[in-house]
């Protein structure tokens, strides 16, 4: 089971809900996390269970970032709105930086998200189990 975060900016929330509906058959086998409203909308429109953090601007991105920093997140789908300024942009950049530091796959658009989910479905993320097994200080 993988730990997967689903995050979407306001104008991308419908797209994330449609993504979750389309890939519910894959996502239901994993632990899901999301920021506030995104998580609520996914649960309202699917049968998925989602652990919800605070809304992104209120610290949700940082809460997910804390899991990334501890290498306890395996995949992030973050549908960003590149055409709208975000008041919490520094938090977003910090989250993406942490993903790079820890080698966590992150998609920032629907096309890459679909590629990563299809790879997950094929079993291409088994290497993350080795990361957890051999990384010092990582508790299962």
UniProtKB/TrEMBL annotation:
The active site is at residue 61. GO terms for molecular function: methylglyoxal synthase activity. PROSITE patterns: METHYLGLYOXAL_SYNTH, MGS. CDD domains: MGS (cd01422). Its EC number is 4.2.3.3. It catalyses: dihydroxyacetone phosphate = methylglyoxal + phosphate. SUPFAM superfamilies: Methylglyoxal synthase-like. It is an enzyme of class 4 (lyase). The keyword Lyase applies. Keywords: Lyase. Substrate binds at residues 9, 13, 35-38, 55-56, 88. It holds the Pfam family MGS. The keyword Lyase applies. Residues 1-140 form the MGS-like domain. Catalyzes the formation of methylglyoxal from dihydroxyacetone phosphate. Belongs to the methylglyoxal synthase family. This is Methylglyoxal synthase.
């Amino acid at each position: 089971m993988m730990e997967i975060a689903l995050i979407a900016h306001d104008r991308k929330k419908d797209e994330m809900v449609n993504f979750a509906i389309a890939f519910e058959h894959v996502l239901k086998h994993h632990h899901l996390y999301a920021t506030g409203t995104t998580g609520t909308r996914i649960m309202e429109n699917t049968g998925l269970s989602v652990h919800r953090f605070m809304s992104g601007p209120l610290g949700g991105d940082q809460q997910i970032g804390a899991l990334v920093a501890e290498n306890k997140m395996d995949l992030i789908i973050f549908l960003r709105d590149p055409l709208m300024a975000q008041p919490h942009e520094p938090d977003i950049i910090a989250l993406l930086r942490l993903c790079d530091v820890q080698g966590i796959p992150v998609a920032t658009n629907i096309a890459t998200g679909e590629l990563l989910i299809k790879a997950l479905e094929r079993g291409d993320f088994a290497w993350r189990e080795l990361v957890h097994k051999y990384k010092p200080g990582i508790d299962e």
